[in-house]
Model the fold of this input.
Amino acid sequence: MKKKNWIEFDNQENICQEKPEEDNLKKIIKINISKQKKGKKGKTITLIKGLGITNQTEVKELLKKIKVFCGTGGNLIGEDIQLQGDMVKKSIEFLRNEGFQNL
Done:
């Protein structure tokens, strides 16, 4: 007996598709997060290098999000992010939430 409104489909096509290259780049690239004393009176800053994002708008959006998450100021130097204060733990937590794995 045939059922009405029954549609069979093959779900293997969706499983076999690879993820976009951006996700693969996030897994391959090694990200360096360090703190330094720099500038007037030896203030501490946190440097995030090696994000692997070449699009300036994406880097600016990421900078804005991480500044809000950490509750601190910061700026962009080329492709690197510079945050005020010792924000190493918070920045690692934020980047892991965003999908970056190699920290």
Q: What stands out?
A: The chain has a mean pLDDT of 80.
